[in-house]
Specification:
Layout: H1 10-13, H2 22-50, H3 63-76, H4 93-96, H5 122-125, H6 138-184
Length: about 180
């Protein structure tokens, strides 16, 4: 009857002091590390050359400030009636030049009450440069409306990430518990 254990295992019978030929190993590791290095270098060059194609804009202030200005202006004008004609809303290409490269966002019918922020009153008609906390351009209003339309997607992604993080920690906790129970036995 043969005894099975560390002394009689097949690994025990081989000579562990034999050297693996180092030349093929060096060549394989050189290829294995060289290909990703070359690919990374090539992607860096493409990235830097692609930067020349970008449109460069001067900073136009914080986008969060613009969004807050729309909300504040709409709340201040909440008692005003909404215009039927959207062509009478405030448009200023100089103000929008810092936030828009090629054009304007299209008008939508959702959240029409935000258009009250772009309605020009008699007092604002007389002023050359408007107070942006009382009157904003239609383009900025459309920016806020598009962000509001994206909120359900953002919330779903956050919830999904929270669930994934909880699952990962619970799996890790189970794994550590399993290891501790195995060690105690």
């Amino acid at each position: 009857m043969e005894a099975y254990g560390p002394a009689s295992s097949p690994l025990r019978q081989t000579n562990l002091n034999q050297r693996i030929p180092s030349q093929p190993l060096k060549k394989a590791s050189g290829i294995g590390l060289g290909i990703p290095t070359i690919a990374m270098g090539l992607s860096l060059v493409i990235f830097l050359l692609g930067g020349l194609l970008y449109k460069k804009l001067r900073l136009g202030g914080s986008p969060l400030t613009r969004l807050a200005q729309v909300v504040v202006a709409a709340v201040k004008k909440r008692k005003m009636s909404l215009l039927d004609d959207s062509s009478k809303l405030y448009v200023n290409k100089e103000l929008d030049a810092t936030i828009s490269v090629h054009g304007r966002l299209l008008h939508t019918d959702q959240f029409r009450w935000l258009y009250k922020a772009a309605v020009v009153t008699r007092k604002e008609e007389q002023v050359q440069k408007p107070n942006l906390w009382r009157l904003v351009t239609v383009h900025v209003v459309e920016e806020l409306k598009s962000i509001i339309r994206m909120l359900p997607n953002i919330i779903c992604c956050l919830l999904l990430r929270c669930v994934a993080a909880h699952f990962q920690t619970s799996v890790l906790n189970f794994f550590y518990f399993f290891v501790i129970v195995r060690v105690i036995k």
